[in-house]
Amino acid sequence: MRAIVFDPNNRFTVLVTRLAILFGVLFLWWLGTDQKWLSPFFFGDPVGVARRIVEWFVTGSVFRHLYTTLLETMLAFAIGTVLGLACGLWLALNPFLAVVFDPFIKAMNSMPRLIFAPIFALWFGLGIWSKVALGVTLVFFVVFFNVFQGVREVSPTVLSNTRMLGANSRQLMRHVYLPSATSWVFSSLHNAIGIAFVGSVVGEYLGSEKGVGYLILLAEGVFDINSVIAGILVLTVFALVLDTAVSMVEDHLLRWRPVAGQTVAASA
């Protein structure tokens, strides 16, 4: 008997499978709480969670919290990405400085950055900038190491041939180093979006006046598990939306990149 093999490139099949898994999990969750196999006090109620999300958006009470969290996330993402890109290029193109700063970078990267949240709150207060600073420390290293590795992976043969054609430093940067680093950068941005959310929400959770993390903290304080789960789901959806946006920008900017199958066929 032949096993059924599904085509991973069939978007409809993939979508149906994903929806089946999602609704299957939701059904099991509802069944568990409805039959009292799971305590709604600890695991929440899917109907109650959905009702809470609808209530937030209908009344508009969630928008100011969501706006704050998204603003913190995007600022942390943008600043951390720019700093990581600049420092990664700078050290990758300066081998001596890369060796000098190597132990310092490794030491800073090994630190659990979340412990800096109280320090940033002391420095910048309970406004958005303490959360942005925490998010930047998380995003920076993800982007930095990918850019650094991407530039170091440039083929020496390509560099030699480009220099033989008379390319100057600016042309090398534009036509060789940046294209080489671009794929690495976009692969890191998918993780950076999620990490920026983590930094923002954790910062709000530890001390803030508004934000979805603050909303979750308030719900936790009164043991409202439905609101806690609702806040987590809202954050998850927006994180997926931002990740999809990054993928669309990546596909547009990396149209020149050959597909693996096409590369193999061409070489054959």
TrEMBL record:
Single Gene Ontology BP term? Answer: transmembrane transport
**Record has Signal as a keyword:** no
Q: Please name the PROSITE patterns in this protein's record.
A: ABC_TM1
Localisation per UniProt entry: Cell membrane
Q: Which residue ranges traverse the bilayer?
A: 12-32, 74-101, 113-130, 136-155, 176-202, 214-242
Which controlled-vocabulary keywords does the entry list? Cell membrane, Membrane, Transmembrane, Transmembrane helix, Transport
Q: Identify one Gene Ontology CC term for this UniProt entry.
A: plasma membrane
Membrane topology according to the record:
Multi-pass membrane protein
- Entry keyword Transmembrane: yes
Q: Domain of life here?
A: Bacteria
UniProt domain ABC transmembrane type-1: residue ranges: 66-246
Family indicated by similarity: Belongs to the binding-protein-dependent transport system permease family.
- The protein's name is Binding-protein-dependent transport system inner membrane protein
Organism encoding this protein: Caballeronia cordobensis (Burkholderia cordobensis)
